[in-house]
Amino acid sequence: xxxxxxxxxxxxxxxxxxxxxxxxxxxxxxxxxxxxxxxxxxxxxxxxxxxxxxxxxxxxxxxxxxxxxxxxxxxxxxxxxxxxxxxxxxxxxxxxxxxxxxxxxxxxxxxxxxxxxxxxxxxxxxxxxxxxxxxxxxxxxxxxxxxxxxxxxxxxxxxxxxxxxxxxxxxxxxxxxxxxxxxxxxxxxxxxxxxxxxxxxxxxxxxxxxxxxxxxxxxxxxxxxxxxxxxxxxxxxxxxxxxxxxxxxxxxxxxxxxxxxxxxxxxxxxxxxxxxxxxxxxxxxxxxxxxxxxxxxxxxxxxxxxxxxxxxxxxxxxxxxxxxxxxxxxxxxxxxxxxxxxxxxxxxxxxxxxxxxxxxxxxxxxxxxxxxx
Length: 373
Fold this sequence. Notes:
This protein is of the alpha/beta class. It has helices at residues 2-8, 16-28, 39-49, 54-69, 97-110, 165-171, 257-269, 289-301, 313-320, 335-343, 364-367, and strands spanning 81-89, 114-120, 132-136, 138-139, 142-143, 153-158, 178-181, 196-200, 216-220, 244-248, 274-281, 305-309, 325-327, 348-349.
C-alpha cells in the first residue's frame, strides 16, 4: 500500500477519482497494516490526502517505525538536569526555515537554560547560543545514538518532526522525561513518543484546538515564534500588470487536489489574465514526478502556470520578487515562504479554515516590518 500511495502522489493533484481513492485507502486501513519503508512520504501525505484521517494512518506509521528501530541500541540516559534542555533538528543551516524560525527562540531559552543542540549531520549555521553541540550520524541504515549517552537533558524539543526520517526515528524514542514538538512541521505526530506540542495563541482555534493533537497543546503568545529573515536586499521592481503573477511556494504533497481546484476557481472567475508560479522545489525530483505532475496541473490550469523544480535559495528568493501576490497553502501553511514574501513587500493571502492549522503566519506581519503593503 505504501508504494501505491507514493505512485499516485504526482497524479492526485489533478484527478478527483484518484484523490477520492486515496481517501478511501485511509478509511480502509486495517489494524494489521504496518509500513516498512517510505515513512516520511507517507507521514507527509497523510495530512493532505485527508486531514480528518491523518491520525489513523500516522498511528500505523509510528507502529512500523517502532518495529524498525527496536533493534537499534538505545542511549544510556544520564541524570536529568532541570536546567538543561536539548533541541533536535536536521536543518540548522543559514536561510533554512528552521534556523530562521527558531534562531531567536533558542537565543531566548539560552538566557535561562543550558540548551544543547542535537543535530542530524553537521550544522552549518552559527551554534554560539548552544551550550553543547552533538552531531548524530547514520551508518548502514541505523542512527548512532551513542553520542547521546549521559546527555542529562530534562526536556527535548523536536523542531520539525516528519521533515526527515531521522526525526521520526528519534521522536519514537523516550530520550528525556519531557519531549515536545514545535512548529517546524505544524501538525500533530499522532502517536510519537511526545508529550507536548508548542504552538501560538494566534494560530490556533480559540476553543477546541486540542482535538487536532495527540500531544498536550501548549500555546505561547502571538504566533509562537518569531521569524528572523536575511536582509531583504533589492525589493521587487515594478512588474507589468499582465499577467498577474500569483506565487504558490508549495512542494508536493502541499500541492494537493482541493488546493488545485481552488486555483482553477480563481482562474475561472478572474477578470484579468493570471499566471500561477508553482515553486515546488526538490519534491519533484523523485519517481519522475515532474512530468506527471506537470501534465496533471496543465489539465486543470491550462497554460496559466509555471512549474519550477529545485532552485537555490537566492534563485528562489529572486523568483519571489517577481510576483504580485503570494498564496499560502492548506491545510498546512508555509509560514516561512509567506514571511519572506511579506519581507519583500509582496502581499500574502492565507486561506481561513474552520479546522486544522495553517501555520504561524499572523504574527509575522509585525515582525517583518512590512505594515505598509
